[in-house]
Amino acid sequence: MSLYDVLEVEPSASADDIKKSYRRLARQYHPDANPGDADAEARFKEVAAAYEVLGDADKRAQYDQYGSTGDFNFSDPFGSGSGGLGDLFDAFFGGNPFGGGGGRGPSGPPRGQDIETSAVISFAETVTGCHKDISIRTAVACEDCGATGAEPGTLVEVCPDCGGAGEVRTVRQTVLGQIVAASPCRRCSGLGEIVPSPCGTCGGAGRVREDKNLMVDIPAGVDEGSTLRLSGQGPVGVRGGPPGDLFVRLQVRNDPRFHREGVDVVTRVPVAMTQAALGATITIPTLDGDHELVVAKGTQSGKTVRLRHSGMPRLNGRGRGDLIVVLDVLTPTDVDEDQSDALRKLAELRGESVDPEPEGFFSRLRSRLAD
Ligand SMILES: [Zn+2]
Ligand SMILES: [Zn+2]
Which domain holds residue 342? Predict the structure, then answer.
């Protein structure tokens, strides 16, 4: 079967005849005209592939001479070598008709858009989970017209411009032949219907603005930037369209005592020099309240203690991370004379050299008098 047979023309047909025949066959076998018909779809592909060659003077000449066009292999016109067919479909039909979802005509009113809001919670609330009241500006179905957009007592009508399809096709003449482009119908905004007498309350949209308060359930373990998706809690679509989703983005107020590293939480705890040297029991903050921690004798600054399963709850509800306690041994900066004497004594006992005591006012005075 030659490409001429596919296009149902004689090998001597003029370019014009080929184009006409192609258009007739493409319309006849177009998937939109034959939904679910695999034979028609195969035939349509053959026709499109044949026209790709015969509709082009150079390729046609090559085909006439060699029975093929080099890169064109008719047994597998959709193989990797045939590229460009997708483009062809795009140019002619505004989308690949085999891709599915190219969706002709409205499949019901469109869904409302997704909206985002934010909520601020405390660090403690990320540990326990919480409920938050949030208020959003959204859209709800207009009760006066039952979301139809039509003034009560009047009817919704099929859009006369697109016949209810929701889109209009325009035909352009180009070097490739006739190009049919589909675009959303402007008169009905793609809805396929119009309301000759719009509802006075919603202006024909079938929905009205509303400020709504919602109680949001925030699970334990959320973090700064976590976003909750509340399915179907967004604004409804126009004229009875289903609602979009509401996204709630969380901001977490810092707690100066804690910072998160994933599900682990780090806290820095000051330990006095004497406590670190001699050992002590100190009070530390944890996510579950104050706890006692035994500081071992001879603890170095920067030592970490890991308290298992005392960190942040995992979002999936399975256990908790760890609490990492970093011990900061503090050098005293406010020693008085007695403490200074004690430290000097300690240094002497340990054989550690320290700076001499700075000369005070009286010793300076004494030395001056002695001169
Ligand atoms: Zn329309
Ligand atoms: Zn209304």
Answer: 337-370
Instruction: State in Å: Cα 195 to ligand 1 middle.
Output: 11
Buried b (16+ CB within 10 A) or exposed e, 46-85: bbbbbbbbbbeeebbebbeeeeebeebebeebeeeebeeb
Task: Give residue 40 CA to ligand 1 midpoint distance, Å.
Answer: 28
Interval between CA 158 and ligand 1 midpoint (Å): 8
343 and 322 co-located in one domain: no
Q: How confident is the model at residue 70 (pLDDT cuts 50, 70, 90)?
A: very low
Span from the CA of 157 to the centroid of ligand 1 (angstroms): 10
Instruction: Please check whether residue 189 lies inside any domain of the structure.
Output: no
What's the pTM value of the predicted model, to 2 decimals? 0.59
- pLDDT tens-digit series, residues 331-367: 999 999 999 999 999 999 999 999 987 766 556 566 6
The total number of structural domains in the chain stands at: 3
Q: Give the DSSP H or E segment for 322.
A: none
Among the three residues 66, 93, 120, which one is the final residue of a domain in this structure?
93
- Residues 355, 288, single domain; the answer is no
Indicate which ligand has the atom closest to the C-alpha of 187: 1
Instruction: Report the CATH number at residue 278.
Output: 2.60.260.20
**What is the number of residues in the chain?**
371
SS3 for 306?
strand
User: What separation in Å is there between the alpha carbon of 235 and the centre of ligand 2?
Assistant: 15
Evaluate whether residue 227 is within a structural domain: no
The ligand with the least distance to the CA atom of 240 is 2
